[in-house]
Amino acid sequence: MTPPLLQVRDLRRTYRARGGLFGGGLVTRAVDGVSFDVMPGETLGLVGESGSGKSTTGRLVMGLEQPDAGQVVFDGTELTSLSATAKRPFRRRMQIVFQDPYAALNPRMRVGDFVEEPLVVHGLGGDAAARHDAVAALFRTVGLDPAFMRRYPHEFSGGQRQRIGIARAIALRPDFLVADEPITALDVSIQAQIVNLFQDLQESMGLALLFIAHDLSMVRYLCTRVAVMLKGRIVEAGPVGAVFEDARHPYTQALLSAVPIPDPARERGRRRLPFDAGAFEFQPDDALRDIGGGHLVLQGDPR
Amino acid sequence: MLDIRDLSVGFSRDGRFARVIDGLSYAVAKGETLGIVGESGSGKSVHALALLGLLPQPPGKVLGGRAVFDGEDLLALPESRLRDLRGARIGVVFQDPMTALNPVLTIGRQIAEPLIRHKGMSMRQALDRAADLLALVGIRDGGRRLSQFPHEFSGGMRQRVMIAIAISCEPALLIADEPTTALDVTVQGQILDLMAGLRERLGMTMIWITHDMGVVAGIADTIQVMYAGRIMERGPVGAVFASPRSAYTWGLLQSLPHGARPPGGRLHQIPGQPPDMFALPPGDPFAPRNPFATDRCRVEAPPLRAVTDSAPGHSVAAWYDLPALLGRAA
Known about the structure:
The structure holds two protein chains of two kinds.
Chain A: E1 6-16, E2 27-38, E3 43-47, H1 54-61, E4 69-74, E5 77-78, H2 84-93, E6 94-97, H3 101-104, H4 111-121, H5 128-141, H6 158-169, E7 176-180, H7 188-205, E8 208-213, H8 216-222, E9 225-230, E10 233-239, H9 240-245, H10 250-258, H11 264-267, E11 287-290, E12 296-299
Parallel strand pairs in A: 3-8, 3-9, 6-7, 7-8
Antiparallel strand pairs in A: 1-2, 1-4, 4-5, 9-10, 10-12, 11-12
Helix pairs in contact in A: 4-5, 4-6, 5-6
Chain B: E1 2-13, E2 16-28, E3 33-37, H1 44-51, E4 60-69, E5 72-73, H2 79-85, E6 90-93, H3 97-100, H4 107-119, H5 123-136, H6 142-145, H7 155-167, E7 173-177, H8 185-202, E8 205-210, H9 213-219, E9 222-227, E10 230-236, H10 237-242, H11 247-254, E11 305-306, E12 315-316, H12 322-329
Parallel strand pairs in B: 3-8, 3-9, 6-7, 7-8
Antiparallel strand pairs in B: 1-2, 1-4, 4-5, 9-10, 10-12, 11-12
Helix pairs in contact in B: 4-5, 4-7, 5-7
């Protein structure tokens, strides 16, 4: 069997609200014992609502934040304990695409230079002329005219900026990409373009994808497996078919019942299941248990 | 209830001019919920701001038209009269409740204020009513929460407060601009259920502005699809979803994922970018992105016309006959 490309084990990250009225400091468990694997070329969807810890998980995996505990094993090497220098060759193989493509771009940098930057930093892509050709090829790969290389970010629409962000992310030919809400800020008519681009890239580059999103319909469409997060923990995970058609955790069930369906006949008369996340508490014996076929559900000990 | 005729709005930037709303006409009947769908540059939000007298002028400018609400032309009213209408006869909910709420006033004061101003209540009466309103929008323990400040509420709770303020004076018309876009899907579901219930109880007329076809499918009686400041299609939701006649509406619906992806499958995608309102093409503004566009689409803007072989009230701005073209392509 192929080993996983990425193994995340018991990742933890807490934030302490400093000072405050009583100086004590509230502890928020942003990520509270998260484990999952990503296989080479696979798309894993990470879903959950605000405060679920899904974006923090992505940042921890990428090393943009340090975990309090847990391991991130990429292609057999544990990364969280490595020095920055030792991490470098792995960093090249892991890249991230952000939600807001404009915030990620440098407004005073020509977009061609922005896409070229990782090649320069890592000393790849040959001399200036070869790098220029490489960037032109990247522009074509993401569906942009290479003539745009000399322009600045403000001259582009949201969808084009996201293509620029993707071009930079794939410049070093990574094996793994974290896409953190990459279509959330885009117009509906542009979302399908970007999702299709991700699929094209996966097929041509064999890219594995951690797709962090709250749009469950899109996750179901794009991903092979999905993990559902609530309050820093994964409550359900498995093949998308199993999780979407046979959701077991009450939170997953509530989430799925709330997704609006673009079909008036079905959307009317639909019952949304209530779920009070504020009142929900995990139980001490809760663990992700396999109910068959890799479908994991957070539940107490059945015995 | 509301009758808009030939509304045009312009926008200036860096010495350039754009006609962001171009001769918009539509009406909303009493008790109807109109869902307006559009993307960047569709004019869906700008036209609402213009109706409410909230359009920043400059850079915006109402170029012409009428918007008759209850016998009065909103576009011709003095600001003082508009202010009376807003919050009393017309309730408004925007996307971001944090910017709409005053951070230094208690929630109770903010709900009470329109009741005192428009209904002549005393502070005591208004606060009692405010507690009832919080209960109505599903906030428990309303009496205690009245003395709290906006930052003590979650995003979903703040949006509920905004809705409580908007409906406090039992408005005849509620205009909601992307009221659930910033919210989590479970919270959005609660707000949608809440609004459907309130509409029934209060007999409100609603204009619900969104980009989400799923939300419109659930809440609206009539859907109106806008693009580049114009209506591309409108009609009863059932008829429009079942048989869209604008290539834009059709493309939007087609681009949404349904279920699992077939192996090697791709989503239908609308090519190109949202319109640049400062450089609109001649003719039908969607023509450059429309694979079905005819030569006439590229030179002459189509008027909104009735669709004869669909439900009454279904109309489209298109020179082509979409079902015939789709049948030929299939």
